[in-house]
Amino acid sequence: MRSILTAQQNLARLYSRQMCTSTYAQSSTRISSSSVQRGLVVPYRFEGVFIAKGKEDFICTRNLVPGEALYGEELIFVQNEGGTEVEYRVWNPLMSNLANAIMCGVTNIWVKPGSRILYLGDDVCQITLSHLSDLVGLDGLVYVVGLSDVAVKMAEKRPNVITVFQKPSCIGKYRMVVGMVDVIYADIHSDEVHTITSNIIYYLRAGGHYLVYTRASNIYSTTRGKDPFAYHHRQKEFTPIEAVMLEPIDREYAMAVGGFRMPEE
């Protein structure tokens, strides 16, 4: 089984490298020492997420690409007990829906070191993607399916980001590249419900979880058919866990979290 997974990873990385042509080459920003902080960083309640303590507390992730900031975020250096330096990146909730959900009290994001994630969408948030890459580490993978130049550029610097330059609706075309995953993360629009649910059914392992950023009205409206996963809830394939309102930053949106083919308790 392990050899099959390794072969699939190698195939995925080969596919990703072929997509990363020189057209998309772009270096991350190396920030100046004036933007660097030294301080106390402690684990948060989600594995792989940390809190940087200071005049203000910030959530952060351990930087997979030391010395480089992607979007001008603060880098924090901490000396560990062994005398080596560990580098963290501040995760801005104003610029990432997932970070916002964490700050708004989501119970669990189900992403941890070693996880395999499928990120769906043409409009990929490079900030969320980069921190997901930090979270899963080199033992994990983040597959990105969509027509996203952002993801292609990021894959050049981050070996655990695998880009699949295909529309998420073309599910069968990337089956040889994308394996079964632990978590699916997606933004949802009214015309994409079928695409996202199909990817969940096709690629999310039994007992896995999905996090979907969507309009709150899609979840809370009593109008028949508004709930994007209503049919699958009735079929007991999708198990809704929680929906977190993203106020005050994003008042009209929520993060819907659920499980797929969950084992009976």
UniProtKB/TrEMBL annotation:
Q: Where in the cell is it found?
A: Nucleus, Nucleolus
Single GO MF annotation: histone H2AQ104 methyltransferase activity
One GO cellular component assignment for this chain's record is: small-subunit processome
- Report the principal subcellular site: nucleus
Q: Which InterPro entries match?
A: Fibrillarin (IPR000692), SAM-dependent_MTases_sf (IPR029063)
* Gene3D superfamilies for the chain: Phosphorylase Kinase, domain 1, Vaccinia Virus protein VP39
Signal peptide feature range: none
Asked if the record carries the keyword Membrane, the reply is no
Q: Which UniProt keywords apply?
A: Methyltransferase, Nucleus, Ribonucleoprotein, RNA-binding, rRNA processing, S-adenosyl-L-methionine, Transferase
GO BP terms: namely: box C/D sno(s)RNA 3'-end processing
Asked if the Swiss-Prot or TrEMBL record annotates the protein with the keyword Nucleus, the reply is yes
Q: What family does this chain come from, according to its entry? A: Belongs to the methyltransferase superfamily. Fibrillarin family.
Official protein name in the record: Fibrillarin
Taxonomic lineage? Eukaryota, Viridiplantae, Streptophyta, Embryophyta, Tracheophyta
